[in-house]
TrEMBL record:
The gene is glsA. This is Glutaminase. Its EC number is 3.5.1.2. Gene3D superfamilies: DD-peptidase/beta-lactamase superfamily. The lineage of its organism: Bacteria, Bacillati, Cyanobacteriota, Cyanophyceae, Oscillatoriophycideae. It comes from Lyngbya aestuarii BL J. Homotetramer. Keywords: Acetylation, Hydrolase. It catalyses: L-glutamine + H2O = L-glutamate + NH4(+). Pfam families: Glutaminase. Substrate binds at S80, N130, E174, N181, Y205, Y257, V275.
Length: 342
């Protein structure tokens, strides 16, 4: 097998031939492809170039099977989804105690870009909103900015199995319009939550947000977390097993910004969204979901992505607190047999 792309398409085509789950995903795509509510993010000028009809769904199981429908090759910027994974790297670099002294794990109930710090501890509330993510990026080790960014890109490669590029126009667009992020960084500098090389850290943060991924990458990333930190196709470890639970927990409570409570109530799968239109969702021990559709709700979450995850969660009983027999048995739908359970 020459490369990961070949392995992935072989895995997909085998699954496509045999699995009713493939048909289920096709139906889901048809069901929501003409759902046109929501709007493309416009506060970063370059993001307005996205097309509203773009829509892709990919599911990767923890045993490495891949199912996809729609535009799973379309690249877009990862945006806030990067935050969950950079948090993992910061934990590996410094351990829990130190990271937690710079960034909390409490949901804010506020928008992703709110300039609010914990009034008692002066920390940003959590690593999934901009302030906390900038503090997390500040923690990434390296002798200089180039080395720190390289470490980030290498980490994403471990999760997805392939190299990633940065969308330079998006990066520059964010850098030139990102004064709100600049403001919160200076507030955090005032409280000693970040170092004084603000522009360097912001450059890395804006570049990390501008990494290009597709829906397949997002499914591989969440499947890797679902699989205890090991990429289920390449078998490479992307995150120290000790920190997988930290990352997934904070995704569950804070990953969908101020929509996290409703997401947990209705869908119940740890997830992270980004204003580029991606969602990555982790069903621990089972599978990862990656969706892409740039039409967002008012909170910055992809509307078609929410719908897809809601259907998957309900139909296959993926909600973490589900104790009822699901309508469909996931294993049976995936391998076409009956009676197996996960
Ligand atoms: N919610 C997002 O995806 C926002 C990330 C974006 N780069 C910002 O800093 O505003």
């Amino acid at each position: 097998m020459s490369n990961l792309g070949d392995m992935q398409s072989l895995a997909s085509s085998i699954s496509a031939m045999t699995s009713p789950f493939r048909n289920y995903l096709n139906d889901l795509y048809e069901k929501y492809k003409s759902f046109n509510d929501g709007a493309i993010a416009d506060y970063i000028p370059e993001l307005t170039l996205a097309k509203p009809e773009w829509f892709g769904i990919c599911v990767v199981t923890t045993d490495g099977q891949m199912f996809e429908v729609g535009e799973c090759d379309q690249l877009f910027t990862i945006q806030s989804i990067s935050k969950a994974f950079v948090f993992g790297l910061a934990l590996e670099d410094h351990g829990r105690e130190y990271v937690n002294s710079k960034v909390g794990v409490e949901p804010t109930g506020e928008a992703f870009n709110s300039i609010v710090l914990d009034e008692v501890t002066n920390r940003p509330y959590n690593p999934m909103v901009n302030a906390g993510a900038i503090a997390t990026t500040d923690l990434i080790k390296g002798n200089n900015s180039t080395e720190r960014l390289k470490r980030l890109l290498e980490m994403f490669k471990r999760y997805t199995g392939r190299d990633h590029e940065i969308n330079v126009p998006v990066f520059l667009s964010e850098k030139s319009t990102g004064n709100r992020n600049r403001a919160m960084s200076y507030l955090m500098l005032n409280f000693g939550m970040v170092g004084d090389k603000i522009e360097d850290t912001l450059d890395i943060y804006f570049q990390q947000c501008s990494i290009m991924v597709n829906a397949r990458d997002l499914a591989m990333m969440s499947a890797t977390l679902a699989n205890g930190g090991v990429n289920p196709v390449t078998q490479e470890r992307a995150l120290d097993e000790r920190y997988v639970q930290d990352v997934i927990s904070v995704m569950l409570t804070c990953g969908m910004y101020d929509g996290s409570g409703e997401w947990l109530y209705r869908i119940g799968i740890p997830a992270k969204s980004g204003v580029g239109g991606g969602i990555t969702a982790v069903a621990p021990g089972k599978l990862g979901v990656g969706t892409f559709s740039p039409l967002l709700d008012a909170k910055g979450n992809s509307l078609r992505g929410i719908k897809v995850c809601e259907d998957l969660s309900r139909d296959f009983g993926l909600h973490l607190f589900n104790v009822a027999k699901p309508d469909r048995d996931l294993a049976a739908w995936i391998d076409g047999s009956e009676g197996d359970s996960w």
